[in-house]
Write a structure and sequence with these properties.
The protein is α/β, with parallel strands linked by helices. Among the domains are: about 180 residues, Rossmann fold (3-Layer(aba) Sandwich), CATH 3.40.50; about 90 residues, Luciferase, Domain 3 (Luciferase, domain 3); about 100 residues, ANL, C-terminal domain (GMP Synthetase, Chain A, domain 3, 2-Layer Sandwich). About 30% of the residues lie in helices and about 25% in strands. It is built from 15 helices and 27 strands. A 7-stranded mixed sheet has the order 11-10-12-13-14-15-16, with helices on both faces. Strands 4-3-5-6-7 form a 5-stranded parallel sheet, sandwiched between helices. Strands 17, 18, 20, 21 and 22 form a 5-stranded antiparallel sheet that branches. Helix 4 crosses helix 5 and helix 7 crosses helix 8.
Length: about 525
């Protein structure tokens, strides 16, 4: 077995043995070294086992970005159980669905979510006990977090099967139905963190990763938390995205790596110039989770002098599949080249490989690809062409091996039989100085099949009209690509990771756009 394809606790033990006194986590001014983290997660594992948790059990983790999120996560894994991270923006019924669908036997929750736990406790028959991090417990019978951290015998050793045993069930957003739990195994995550190690070239004991993306999300969990813990770097979790807090934390921790989604880079551009020096320690920035508008990338790099390396990867791939080579040739507008041990290709609807430059579905295979969807064999089968995982992204590969995402398959708009890719239209809109945020979706049309509709958040009120933006698009796009309607919102809806949520915009469309439309009918 490769030293990098081993159960996560074994990989961490090796790192802790060599990095013991080095800082593993820097949270809210408090540091935790690798030795202390090892002891605390061991205590959590042993106490969970004493409470009856056995290998294969699922445990919900409903918690903010913090040192205790990481300790709970690793404690659950060391006990042989599976982590079920909960999206903090879900409503209580959605939380109950995930806990019930996963069959979770226990729940570890942060006190801020006590009202949500109160609302669903009666609907969680499989939950045998809960642990509250904080004083505001949902039920007096719930265990206190310090109980799990108290001195205990070493946890009972667990024999792991790296191919079969599930580290984490990460539930997808459920844009086309109920959320599905992607089963990520020890092999999936061990291989992906090693791919990240090689691709990024970060230095153990020196690099510090600032993690403001939610750690219940695959990108932050793997790149921001698991990679540093398994490979000797430090991470600094931040509970919420607030630009001044982010800048202050970068300065306070000496963070060298910042990982974010495009909308966060856009917001950081609004910081006062006095904040610029707070980002001085950054060595590189990473962007993923959504397409990075080229205009935002250029503005950020010009202002702060920090390069952004765009990459990609779906939850089901652990998630990193590709990134622009760190320190190498970046191709702006691409998501880069594949990371080591991962394969990517472009396939048509019949699983035939397409030539370079031709648009098809981006597909992935490798040890990072999930075991499948939890208790969803049919949906698992639909997600694959044999060994190739179907990402649902339309894209191309160029002759140099750089991949370009054109759009999500489900987002493509067909106008009079011609394909319109929303990302292409959005890139043009972002070039207009009045546009702060942009999203383009399709609206059914009896005459044209579909028409493009743009949702815009302006940089300032009344900075542009719908006619202005449509005229600007006409200068750069084909007539069929120009938005037929433009709707203005104070800001566009986003998920917990800061990604613009187009399904919310589609709902608005179904409700006859109950917003300030300033609509421009006609071609």
């Amino acid at each position: 077995m490769s030293e990098h394809i081993a159960p996560l606790p074994a990989l961490f033990a090796k790192t802790a043995a060599t990095c013991g006194g080095h800082t593993a986590i820097n949270f809210n001014g408090q540091t935790t070294d690798f030795t202390t983290f090892d002891k605390r997660s061991d205590a959590v594992a042993a106490n969970l086992q004493a409470l009856g948790i056995v290998k294969g059990d699922r445990i919900g983790l409903y918690c903010i970005n913090s040192d205790f999120f990481a300790v709970a996560y690793f404690g659950i894994v060391k006990a042989g159980a599976t982590v079920v991270p909960i999206n903090l923006l879900l409503n209580p019924k959605e939380v109950a669905y995930i806990l019930n669908d996963s069959g979770a036997r226990a729940l570890i929750y942060f006190e801020a979510f006590t009202p949500a736990v109160n609302a669903i406790r009666a609907d969680l028959p499989a939950i045998e006990f809960a642990v509250c991090i904080g004083a505001e417990k949902s039920d007096p019978a719930d265990r206190d977090w310090p109980e799990l951290l108290c001195a205990a015998e070493a946890p009972v050793p667990v024999e792991f099967d790296v191919d079969e045993d599930i580290v984490v069930l990460i539930y997808t957003s459920g844009t086309t139905g109920k959320p599905k739990g992607a089963m990520l195994t020890h092999r999936n995550l061990a291989s992906n963190t090693n791919s990240i190690r090689i691709a990024m070239g970060l230095v153990p004991g020196e690099d510090v990763m600032l993690v403001v993306l939610p750690m219940f999300h695959a990108f932050a969990a793997t790149v921001g938390m698991l990679f540093p813990l398994l490979h000797g770097c430090t991470f600094a979790p931040v509970p919420k995205f607030e630009p001044n807090l982010v800048a202050d934390t970068i300065a306070a921790t000496g963070a060298t790596v910042f990982m974010a989604v495009p909308s966060m880079y856009n917001v950081l551009l609004r910081l006062p110039e006095t904040a610029d020096s707070k980002l001085d320690s950054l060595r590189l920035c990473l962007s993923g989770g959504a397409a990075m508008p080229v205009e935002i990338l250029k503005q950020f790099e010009e202002r702060y002098g920090k390069l952004i390396y765009e990459g990609d990867g779906p939850t089901e791939c652990s998630p990193v599949t590709c990134v622009n080579p760190i320190g190498g040739r970046r191709v702006i507008g691409s998501v880069g080249t594949v990371v080591p041990d991962v394969e990517m290709t472009i396939l048509d609807d019949h699983a035939n490989e397409l030539p370079h430059g031709q648009i098809g579905e981006i597909c992935v295979r490798g040890p990072n690809v999930m075991k499948g969807y939890w208790q969803r064999p049919e949906e698992t089968a639909e997600a694959f062409f044999d060994e190739w995982f179907r990402t649902g992204d339309l894209g191309t590969e160029d002759d140099d091996g750089y991949f370009h995402i054109v759009d999500r398959m489900k987002d493509m708009i067909i106008v009079n039989g011609m394909n319109v890719y929303p990302r292409v239209v959005e890139e043009i809109l972002y070039q207009h100085e009045a546009v702060g945020e942009a999203a383009v979706i399709g609206e059914p049309s009896g005459l044209h099949g579909e028409i493009p509709v743009a949702y815009i958040a302006l940089t300032a009120e009344d900075a542009a009209t719908a006619a202005d933006l449509r005229g600007f698009c006409r200068e750069h796009l084909g007539n069929h690509e120009v938005p037929r309607k433009v709707f203005f919102l104070p800001e566009l809806p986003k998920n917990a990771a800061g990604k613009i949520v187009k399904r919310e915009l589609r709902k608005a469309g179904e409700l006859e756009r109950g917003v300030d439309s300033r609509e421009s009918p006609g071609a």
